[in-house]
């Protein structure tokens, strides 16, 4: 939900101006006073700390490091590198009905297989939590290629 809210241009990245909006909302929620200079300083600090590839923006996996560990489902699959062909094959395989998107049932199968592939045991509750987190990126319960690509790649 946070990703969809703050990636206002739907570029797949949180740029500095979008990160400022995120930090501004966080500071307001915490009742912390700030001015524009402080907000700019915080934004640059966060980028230095979390922008692992130095491109001046945060991708989903970089942004996920700002979230509490128990919600950070992306780190479960850290280190998985997929080529474009592998990603397309995965999407086609799990889009069982061929309708062009992954629904919740198809996503359950994908998550279960991913956890087994990476030799990580996943309880039903964890599976449910991961599915819910990922489906928050979806467009009305339909996880299209772009959203799945954000999660896997």
TrEMBL record:
<dbReference type="GO" id="GO:0005509">
    <property type="term" value="F:calcium ion binding"/>
</dbReference>
<feature type="domain" description="EF-hand">
    <location>
        <begin position="82"/>
        <end position="117"/>
    </location>
</feature>
<comment type="similarity">
    <text>Belongs to the calbindin family.</text>
</comment>
<dbReference type="InterPro" id="IPR018247">
    <property type="entry name" value="EF_Hand_1_Ca_BS"/>
</dbReference>
<dbReference type="GO" id="GO:0030425">
    <property type="term" value="C:dendrite"/>
</dbReference>
<dbReference type="InterPro" id="IPR051001">
    <property type="entry name" value="Calbindin_Ca-bind"/>
</dbReference>
<keyword id="KW-0106">Calcium</keyword>
<feature type="domain" description="EF-hand">
    <location>
        <begin position="38"/>
        <end position="73"/>
    </location>
</feature>
<dbReference type="Pfam" id="PF00036">
    <property type="entry name" value="EF-hand_1"/>
</dbReference>
<dbReference type="InterPro" id="IPR002048">
    <property type="entry name" value="EF_hand_dom"/>
</dbReference>
<dbReference type="GO" id="GO:0099509">
    <property type="term" value="P:regulation of presynaptic cytosolic calcium ion concentration"/>
</dbReference>
<protein>
    <submittedName>
        <fullName>CALB2 protein</fullName>
    </submittedName>
</protein>
<dbReference type="Pfam" id="PF13499">
    <property type="entry name" value="EF-hand_7"/>
</dbReference>
<dbReference type="GO" id="GO:0005829">
    <property type="term" value="C:cytosol"/>
</dbReference>
<dbReference type="GO" id="GO:0043195">
    <property type="term" value="C:terminal bouton"/>
</dbReference>
<feature type="domain" description="EF-hand">
    <location>
        <begin position="1"/>
        <end position="29"/>
    </location>
</feature>
<keyword id="KW-0479">Metal-binding</keyword>
<dbReference type="GO" id="GO:1900271">
    <property type="term" value="P:regulation of long-term synaptic potentiation"/>
</dbReference>
<dbReference type="InterPro" id="IPR011992">
    <property type="entry name" value="EF-hand-dom_pair"/>
</dbReference>
<dbReference type="GO" id="GO:0005634">
    <property type="term" value="C:nucleus"/>
</dbReference>
């Amino acid at each position: 939900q946070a990703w969809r809210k703050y990636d206002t241009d739907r570029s797949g990245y949180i740029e500095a101006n979008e990160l400022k909006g995120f930090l501004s909302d966080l500071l307001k929620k915490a009742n912390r006073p700030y001015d524009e200079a402080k907000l700019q300083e915080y934004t640059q600090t966060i980028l230095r700390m979390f922008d692992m590839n130095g491109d001046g923006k945060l991708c989903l996996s970089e942004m996920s490091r700002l979230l509490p560990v128990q919600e950070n489902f992306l780190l479960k699959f850290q280190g998985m590198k997929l080529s474009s062909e592998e990603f397309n094959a995965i999407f086609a395989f799990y889009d069982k009905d061929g309708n062009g998107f992954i629904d919740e049932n198809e996503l359950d199968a994908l998550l279960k297989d991913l956890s087994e592939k990476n030799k990580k045991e996943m309880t039903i509750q964890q599976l449910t939590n991961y599915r819910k987190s990922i489906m928050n990126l979806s467009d009305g319960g339909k996880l299209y290629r772009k959203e799945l690509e954000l999660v896997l790649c």
